[in-house]
Amino acid sequence: MAFAEVGAVVLLSVAFVFDIRYMTIPNRLTVTSFAGGCVYQALAGGWPGLTSAIYGAAVGFFVILLLYGLKAVGAGDVKLFGALGAWVGPSEVWYCAVYAVMIAGVYGIVLLTLRRPFLRRRLAQRPTLPAAWIVLDEETGLPSGRLRFPFMLAVAPAAAALWFL
Fold this sequence. Notes:
Elements lengths: L2 H20 L4 H43 L5 H14 L1 H25 L2 H6 L11 E3 L6 E5 L4 H13 L1
Antiparallel strand pairs: 1-2
């Protein structure tokens, strides 16, 4: 595994912990990771390396920005993919985003299935979802019926599939 992938793994590992615990990815993590990826690529590959880092950051940022526009992910995920693209380049961040979206779709189907009435009765004795995944109505503060889950639950296996399979 090259140093760039190690940097990406560290970035994703820290982001995973924050996203699971707090449902947020800190700006200081994404900004420093973006800068670190650009510096590494510039030192390793000169101007072509820096160009690749910036292009990779743009690809990662704008692909996930489309999902942000659909309210499918948060702003931290957009910045995370920008930083990830700086480390791994445009093609790897593209494939990681595509795999993550596919995995998130499977998770979404599973969550919808778990919410079916016949399964809810069976699972009523055991909570199946963390409380942070339940979206509250802004006006009443009561559960809105919508669910959300940390996108890193899809990004981590996508990155593992990309780099280790």
